[in-house]
Amino acid sequence: MGASLLDQLRTILGADGVVTDPDVTAGYRRDMMPLAPHGEPLAVVLPRTTEQVQEIVRACARHGTPIVPRGAGSGLSGAANAVDGCVVMVLTRMNAILEIDPDNRLAVVEPGVVNLDLRDAVAKHCLFYPPDPSSYDWCTIGGNLATNAGGLCCVKYGVTTDSVLGLEVVLADGELLRTGRRTVKGVAGYDLTRLFVGSEGTLGVITRATLALRPLPQAPGTLVAAFGSTAAAGAAVSRVIREGIVPSLMEIMDAVSIAAVETHLKTELGAGRGCAALLICQSDAGGEAARRELAAIGQACRDCGAELAYTTYDLAEGQMFLTARRAVLPALEVYGAWMTDDVCVPRTRIAELIEGCARVSEEVGLRVAVVGHAGDGNMHPTIVYDPTSPDDLVLARRAFDQILEIGLGLGGTVTGEHGIGKVRREWLVREIGPIGLRTHRALKAALDPAGLFNPGSMFALQ
Amino acid sequence: MGASLLDQLRTILGADGVVTDPDVTAGYRRDMMPLAPHGEPLAVVLPRTTEQVQEIVRACARHGTPIVPRGAGSGLSGAANAVDGCVVMVLTRMNAILEIDPDNRLAVVEPGVVNLDLRDAVAKHCLFYPPDPSSYDWCTIGGNLATNAGGLCCVKYGVTTDSVLGLEVVLADGELLRTGRRTVKGVAGYDLTRLFVGSEGTLGVITRATLALRPLPQAPGTLVAAFGSTAAAGAAVSRVIREGIVPSLMEIMDAVSIAAVETHLKTELGAGRGCAALLICQSDAGGEAARRELAAIGQACRDCGAELAYTTYDLAEGQMFLTARRAVLPALEVYGAWMTDDVCVPRTRIAELIEGCARVSEEVGLRVAVVGHAGDGNMHPTIVYDPTSPDDLVLARRAFDQILEIGLGLGGTVTGEHGIGKVRREWLVREIGPIGLRTHRALKAALDPAGLFNPGSMFALQ
Asked: Which residues are A19's β-sheet partners?
């Protein structure tokens, strides 16, 4: 049966589109989340056209062989991890930007387009594709769609689903579904587009997307504020929100993150001077408006006890602060492997979450650095562990779960932007309850009755 | 069977919550779309609590009696129209604003809250609930959610679905589903919230919503531009979009609309001087930013041949222009009854749509006034007819359909914000195709297998 499917796949794709060499397939077995299990695929397939995707789906359906779709594999939930005997469908060869329409501010792309390549291409038309996950220089639009990816821009510009007008999706029987439209508004029927966005490859394979673009924002001004306590930093975030300011970026780093980055970049961010938290904010409103916004943010920070609030309109200097923020994960690698959590709490509860993470760190005895999108309440507590120690992995999982528990307790969600995948299945049930789970299963059964796509990811089928 | 269900409903709701008097139920049989058919309900029920909604759903499910949920009945697609023998569930008594949380910029409301009441309540906290359908002073949030309502704000602030964080929905078996969250980001599971938003009462009954609020914008500046041709006005819209300007409002009135309003308000808008189209734009960016935006829009209008482009920062004067815009429908009542269409086209195709509507008007011999949200490409060609003439109704339907045909041909959608309901069912199939229709039916069957909710609205069940 397996051999016969492989033959069919080779007929559909040619020999170079079907990989079975275990040394090569090993690179496609998993994403970036070390806690998630993975299996051994039967084969890895790399289609180049929608028609090939349809034929692969039909062949796999006939053989009852599950399909795990994936892009670059930058995910952090195990949603793209192989299950035993599956076909891993890699969409990276479908990487054409099919159309950029500046007059209607939209782009039509294949799923394998790298996020940064799209950003660069539309910038030439003075347009902006906002979603910017940390992996923006290598993750693909298809993966961004499947996980409803976020990033640093969300506080002002929303997440991936807010930039999608329509999709083409190959369904479990190989038929091609077109959702949405090219107009900016439209309510013809159910919002199928947003049902597929964030469905983590469990409902179909996205082969094309029509994306809404925005005007390219003004060059940003940047403000950095240092606080002696996380409570003060949290209060400043709340104050900014309450005052009706909408920065284009508002990131937080806790003391552990600051110290790691200082060591890594051999720079001075204030950890030595008792700085417990940094806020990095930007305004892209331009001119007077940006100055007014950043002045108001600076005042809010000082009112909440910031020891320093420094504003710059020098782009290179502003970029330097963002580089420090983006260096947190690599900086932690000095101490061991990292795994990053992803809780989103009401914006008034950020300080409590960070303080909770410090308690978890102390209890399990592992370093936990908190970095996050403060303007959204979306925090990434990152646990550092020794990957060669089985004990450490158990402790890391414990810390990971305890942080989710704290997040839920604060009125938050167990995933702000990384997804459920194979690492938060039990937590999905905790968050949405039995009626929510039953609804998920009903929708999955309606669209993929045989459980062909990514089975066992997000939730158990029964 | 019917009597027994009525008894059960009276037990659940008390006598004042169940209406069977045909003189009273007549007021709940239909919405504002004269073309859509309606039936005679068995009863109209007016629950006050979620528990009552659950009990009503269970009782109706046991009796196989369909439920048509509705709010104020301001809809324009017949989605809330009764079917014979159904129970019309009116949610207007569930009208509590349960919570306003300024620190997290959200509100929790029941479905019967009137849009304007919510706007006024959150404005006291310097917050803003953007969706503003024309009926905002009497339509309800529940109806806005069910239809994914839009309005004049959408060009900058999106439609209803862009302001919803979570819902409580009574499902077809009476169970209560909670979707979404209170945080601004979250990707735990499928986006059930946005599946229910815009589902027009076919999947469940929304009994509570958590809504995202924005900071109250600055007082707007207003620009009015007059054009000698619709092509010039359309070109100006395209120019504004291409230049990356995002006004907070951008409305268009064609010559027929202008003339009707001039007669109705006894004012002078330029029709006599050969004005073929007016654009009314606002910027709420405040201060210098608003002045810059409106200056750029004015320049774009003049570059495209505007005969006049007048800007005012006087609020009362700006409001006067909006009053003229909002007066189009009442102004048309002098000539007969009106029915308004709702096509959304790519923003570069507005002039072609308006010109197409003029051709339709000539062909069917009925007045067609086009007014619309130019910044979104969402046009409301409004057909005037004699409601006492059966011939006129046939001609009006013909015009209605021909306009949808033109909209689809221009790459648009058959409904930008009013919905499919009972008046565009065939057009939904035209737009989404057989695979789209099959997908809709599969989702409907998954969530409402007996076809309890609003059967036959949006699409035929088989």
From this structure: A44
- Whether A20 and A84 share a structural domain: yes
Do residue A417 and residue B185 have CB atoms under 8 angstroms apart?
yes
Same domain for A194 and A101, yes or no, is yes
* pLDDT given for residue A3 in this prediction: 61
Residue B434 half-sphere exposure toward CB, CA atoms < 13 A: 1
**Into how many domains does chain A fold?**
4
Q: Chain A contact for B458, CB < 8 A?
A: yes
Chain segment B135-178, per-residue pLDDT in tens: 999 999 999 999 999 999 999 999 999 999 999 999 999 999 99
Range of the domain at B262: 218-326
Q: Which of A214, A238, A439 sits opposite B103 (nearest CB)?
A: A238
Between B287-303 and B230-242, two packed helices, what is the crossing angle to 10 degrees?
140
Q: For A312-327, what is each residue's pLDDT tens digit?
A: 999 999 999 999 999 9
**pLDDT reading at A165 higher than 50:** yes
- A289 near B CB under 8 A: yes
Considering chain B, what percentage of its residues have pLDDT values greater than 90? 96
Identify from B185, B348, B453 which residue to disrupt to test chain A contact, counting A C-beta atoms within 10 A and taking the largest count.
Answer: B185
CATH number of the domain where residue A380 is located:
3.30.70.2740
Q: Does A411 touch chain B (CB under 8 A)?
A: yes
Which of A171, A183, A213, A431 to substitute to test the interface with B, most B CBs within 10 Å?
A: A183
Q: What is the tens place of the pLDDT at every residue in B390-417?
A: 999 999 999 999 999 999 999 999 999 9
The interface pTM score, or ipTM, of the predicted complex is 0.97
